[in-house]
């Protein structure tokens, strides 16, 4: 594999965005050369390949071409892979770790008991502010308000100490907002990873949820943050790959063009 890349041009790559002096010399596969899609956009030149869980580019190259050295062709002929491994589908374990690291907060979701169309999105009316602190009435737990999502009726919080229970009355430090379960309002607290990212109807169309009511007769299907990440990851599992009869010619032609 190293012999193949020896004739390719080199470029300096900044490995740390905060340090301009952190440079590494790498093979320049993307010297402004755009693959001539018309030349490969036919049934004889490529086919679609479904990436199985955990498969690496070099492993697929070996499976298809009996050598790992053609892994880079996947990144040239698939537009979504032009950013490198960032858009390569994550394995189940990688995706789980990624989602758990991304969604670490708690989410408070208030709803109306009954159906009051005048108060469709409660958090937009509460006066709560990002950055203030919520404390339960017994002062055994507190949290910082990190994000207020009016459209999803969500309050994203990071626990400072202790744990909130769904029965707690929560008091804000700045806006004097009170969050509590009453005969008119109720709320739940869920892990951010399991909170709705958006809602869909029975046909799978993304829809706005109005109102947030316990007796709402419309069908709102929540898609959680975890499910959203899984769906996004699944979009990248199908890629175009060159047929074995084309890959040698393509590689040599590309090497000639990029060195021109």
Account of the protein in words:
With 260 residues, the chain is α+β, with helices and mostly antiparallel strands. It folds into two domains: 2-89 and 236-258, no CATH class; 99-232, no CATH class. Helices cover 23% and strands 27% of the residues. The protein is built from seven helices and 14 strands. The chain has helices spanning 2-5, 37-40, 57-65, 72-77, 92-102, 225-234, 244-258, and strands at 10-14, 23-27, 46-50, 106-112, 133-136, 142-149, 154-161, 170-172, 178-179, 185-191, 196-200, 206-207, 221-224, 238-242. A seven-stranded antiparallel β-sheet has the order 9-8-5-6-7-4-10, with no helix packed on it. A three-stranded antiparallel β-sheet has the order 12-11-13. Strand 6 (142-149) and strand 7 form a beta hairpin. The relative contact order is 0.18.
What's this, in brief?
With 260 residues, the chain is α+β, with helices and mostly antiparallel strands. Helix content is 23%, strand content 27%. A hairpin with an 8-residue loop joins strand 1 and strand 2.
What are the defining features of this structure?
260 residues, alpha+beta, three-stranded antiparallel sheet, 7 helices, 14 strands
Give the overall shape.
elongated
What Rg, in angstroms, do the CA atoms define? 26 Å
Averaged pLDDT: 83
- Unreliable stretches, pLDDT < 50, 5 or more residues? 1-5
Main sheet properties? 7 strands, antiparallel
Distance between the termini: 21 Å
Integer count of domains: 2
Derived from helix and strand composition plus strand pairing, the structural class reads alpha+beta
Instruction: Count the DSSP helices.
Output: 7
Strand content: 25-35%
Instruction: Assign a percent range to the helix content.
Output: 10-25%
Strands, total number:
14
**Helix-strand string:** HEEHEHHHEEEEEEEEEEHEH
- How is the largest sheet built, in terms of strand order? 9-8-5-6-7-4-10
């Amino acid at each position: 594999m190293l012999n193949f890349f020896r004739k390719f041009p080199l470029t300096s790559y900044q490995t740390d965005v905060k340090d301009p002096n952190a440079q590494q010399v790498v093979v320049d596969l993307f010297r402004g050369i755009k693959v001539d899609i018309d030349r490969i956009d036919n049934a004889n030149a490529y086919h679609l390949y479904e990436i199985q869980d955990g498969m690496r580019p070099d492993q697929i190259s070996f499976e298809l071409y009996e050598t790992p050295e053609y892994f880079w062709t996947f990144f040239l002929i698939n537009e979504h892979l032009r950013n490198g491994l960032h858009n390569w589908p994550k394995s189940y374990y990688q995706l789980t770790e990624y989602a758990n690291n991304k969604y670490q907060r708690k989410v408070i979701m208030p709803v109306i008991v009954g159906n009051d169309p005048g108060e469709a999105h409660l958090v937009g009316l509460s006066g709560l502010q990002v950055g203030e602190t919520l404390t339960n009435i017994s002062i055994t737990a507190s949290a910082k308000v990190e994000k207020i999502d009016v459209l999803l009726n969500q309050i994203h919080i990071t626990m400072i100490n202790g744990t909130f229970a769904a029965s707690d009355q929560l008091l804000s430090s700045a806006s004097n907002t009170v969050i509590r379960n009453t005969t008119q309002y109720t709320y739940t607290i869920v892990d951010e990873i399991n909170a709705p990212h958006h809602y869909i109807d029975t046909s799978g169309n993304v829809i706005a949820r109005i109102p947030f009511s316990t007796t709402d007769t419309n069908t709102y299907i929540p898609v959680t943050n975890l499910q959203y990440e899984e769906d996004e990851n699944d979009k990248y599992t199908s890629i175009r790959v060159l047929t074995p009869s084309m890959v040698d010619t393509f590689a040599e032609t590309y090497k000639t063009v990029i060195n021109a």
